[in-house]
Amino acid sequence: MGKPSVFVTRRWPNAVESRLSETYDTTFNRQDRALTPTELKEALIKYDAILPTVTDSLNAEVLDVASPKTRFLGNFGVGYSHICEESARALGLTVTNTPGVLSECTADLTIMLMLMVARRAGEGERELRSGKWSGWAPTHMVGTKVSGKRLGIIGFGRIGQEVARRAHHGFGMNVVVYNRSAISSKALAECGARQVDTLDELIPQCDFLSLHCPGGSSNRHLINAERLRLMNRDAYIINTARGEVIDEFALAEALEDGSIGGAALDVFEGEPIINASLLECGKTVLLPHLGSATLETRQAMGFRVIENLDDFFEGREPRDRVI
Ligand code: DGY
């Protein structure tokens, strides 16, 4: 039997691409752009495995393929809400993700965003680069202190826990968590955190609110106009999870009418298209989905996909199977 045919939808770090090509009959999308639904459908007919990313919308329509050749989807990333679970199951696909290896870097970036938005780093940099800075002044670009403040975390998986740990041990923050299921007292104690039962209880007490729950239809617009109204007027929201968790129109309104202090976002509902009001607003820090973007992490993600791929084609249960 020949090598399994594997299609990689985007460019990967060189070391991972080389390792993959040693074992598999690999085709890379050398154009390194998001694939169209038609291209994804063609790939499903042509290859034994596809290794997609968040930019490949494998929705019900795309997965509506009569007799796919593909049996395995190895997602390069932990979030897989771009893959329709129901359709993947109906096609009998095995789907894996890459948990754990990106938690530290995503948590680092979350803390960076929290500091940036509170300390007005984006605004300050824009001012300086545009030649408008006229020098130090006691009231110039005064922000908000982060140390010792209260951080609310929505979703206490690996990334949420890493954020809590950094916030508590590094910045002496008081961490409060909302999670759909109960968290062990040991896990909470490690991060100096306590759990509350509802979002309505969590949101009003926070100086910072950071999102770490999965995306997808069940969490779409979890943070809507009503919940934004529960936030303190000087509180900040940070999103390094998935864009669809926040209703961006409601967020833009809340920023405009001053009902919240600011927003720091790494993810957007219609990536890479960004809501114009968020772009224009001085109280936002916006990054192009950089949560896991370090060479170490992207390599680790790629090698983890390969581990799962090897498991699948060598007849073992892939360690990170999600579907
Ligand atoms: C992840 O791993 O989920 C990142 O957001 C990239 O998809």
Automatic annotation (TrEMBL):
One of its GO terms (molecular function) is NAD binding. The keyword Oxidoreductase applies. Residues 111-291 form the D-isomer specific 2-hydroxyacid dehydrogenase NAD-binding domain. Keywords: NAD, Oxidoreductase, Pyruvate. InterPro entries: D-isomer_2-hydroxyacid_DH (IPR050223), D-isomer_2_OHA_DH_cat_dom (IPR006139), D-isomer_DH_CS (IPR029753), D-isomer_DH_CS1 (IPR029752), D-isomer_DH_NAD-bd (IPR006140), NAD(P)-bd_dom_sf (IPR036291). GO terms for cellular component: cytosol. Residues 16-322 form the D-isomer specific 2-hydroxyacid dehydrogenase catalytic domain. Pfam families: 2-Hacid_dh (PF00389), 2-Hacid_dh_C (PF02826). Belongs to the D-isomer specific 2-hydroxyacid dehydrogenase family. This is Glyoxylate reductase / Hydroxypyruvate reductase.
